[in-house]
Structure to design on (180 residues):
């Protein structure tokens, strides 16, 4: 069996107060018994995460499919600028909001432009216009922020849970499904 994840990422390249907000969200999830309060080796790609807890059954559409028996079953919290991609499944399209051109087959150096700055703009390689990275349409969805919450091997999250996340973040979000 391979691993997968679901990430919730605010549509803000620079989320002001990201570390404070990460702690607030973590405390909220612990209070709902969705994750356990003590970090452990339960995520991929990070030293420690927060293991799944019994209340997670209320956050997913398929509670019987939750990974209680897996080692990789926790919440990873990211507080550094990161591109949240869908893993090895590639990208079908990256549509520019200005020219509607598809950048998927272009040189992806424009991602470095976003990664190395504190703003959220990138330059379209086809029309040379600068636009917010969040205005480009990625298929499948990718996320770009200095804040993100990744649930490892969890089944689909409920709309209510995602809406609660949006409210807590005071931001629209991208949901990124990753398969390794």
């Amino acid at each position: 069996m391979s691993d997968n994840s679901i990430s919730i990422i605010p549509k803000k390249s620079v989320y002001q107060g990201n570390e404070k907000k990460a702690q607030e969200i973590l405390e909220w999830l612990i209070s709902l018994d969705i994750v356990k309060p003590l970090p452990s080796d339960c995520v991929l790609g990070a030293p420690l995460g927060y293991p799944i807890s019994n209340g997670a059954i209320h956050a997913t559409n398929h509670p019987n499919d939750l990974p209680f028996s897996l080692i990789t079953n926790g919440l990873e919290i990211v507080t550094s600028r990161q591109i949240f991609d869908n893993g090895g499944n590639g990208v079908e399209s990256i549509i520019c909001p200005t020219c509607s051109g598809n950048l998927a087959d272009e040189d992806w150096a424009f991602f470095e432009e976003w990664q190395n700055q504190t703003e959220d703009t990138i330059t379209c390689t086809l029309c040379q216009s600068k636009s917010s990275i969040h205005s480009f349409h990625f298929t499948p969805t990718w996320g770009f922020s200095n804040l993100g919450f990744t649930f490892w091997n969890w089944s689909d999250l409920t709309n209510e849970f995602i809406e609660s996340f949006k409210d807590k973040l005071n931001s629209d979000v991208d949901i990124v499904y990753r398969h390794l």
Observations:
- The chain has a mean pLDDT of 94.
- Helices lie at 18-31, 110-115, 159-169.
